[in-house]
Amino acid sequence: MYEAIKIVHSYWAYLVVLVVTLATVNALIGLFGKKEYSPKDFRISLFGLIVTHMQLLIGIIIFFVSPTVMWFKDVPVKEIMGDPLLRLYNVEHPTVMILTIVFITVGYSKHKKKLTSTPKFKILAIFYTIAWLLMLSRIPWANWF
Predict the structure, then answer these.
(1) How far, in Å, CA of 115 to CA of 128, rounded?
(2) What one-character DSSP code corresponds to residue 70?
(3) Which end of the chain has fewer CB atoms at under 10 Å, N or C?
């Protein structure tokens, strides 16, 4: 079961990176290009929100069944924090990815309250860019390639 969920989580991550990158670039182009906010822009940002939340659900399952997550195996915190790989999988990756999803969710929610294009794109550009940078900072790249 773990292997199947890990494969889904890994391959879905490619989609997440692609869609969040697209949504971030779209927001930046809309902001700096002074474009009108359109239904296409709404759908792109919404799809970024959806794929990240789905990845969170998959990640929560992995967190509880993964052999690399040591919180439920009576391993001392000192040992987890002392090993860079264990720290990545047990602390850094989950925490930063949750922060990524928080930024995307807040940005998406705040942009809907704006009435004109420039503020909409500005909110999306700020929050999605921060989320994108956070996400890229804690992907376990060594396992991806």
Answers:
(1) 19
(2) -
(3) C
Distance CA 107, CA 93 (A): 21
How many other CB atoms sit within 10 Å of the CB of residue 131?
A: 26
- Cα–Cα distance, 43 to 49 (Å, whole number): 10
CA pair distance 10, 144, nearest whole angstrom: 8
Q: Cβ distance 134 to 103 under 8 Å? A: yes
3-state secondary structure 3-69: HHHHHHHHHHHHHHHHHHHHHHHHHHHHHHCCCCCCHHHHHHHHHHHHHHHHHHHHHHHHHHHCCCC
Q: What is the mean pLDDT of residues 34-49?
A: 96
Threshold 0.85, pTM exceeds: yes
Task: Please give the C-alpha separations between residue 23 and each of 19, 29, 77, in angstroms, as whole numbers.
Answer: 6, 10, 37
Instruction: Evaluate whether 30 touches 37 at the Cβ level (below 8 Å).
Output: yes
**Distance between CA 81 and CA 85 in Å, rounded?**
9
How many Å from the N-terminal Cα to the C-terminal Cα in the chain?
Answer: 23
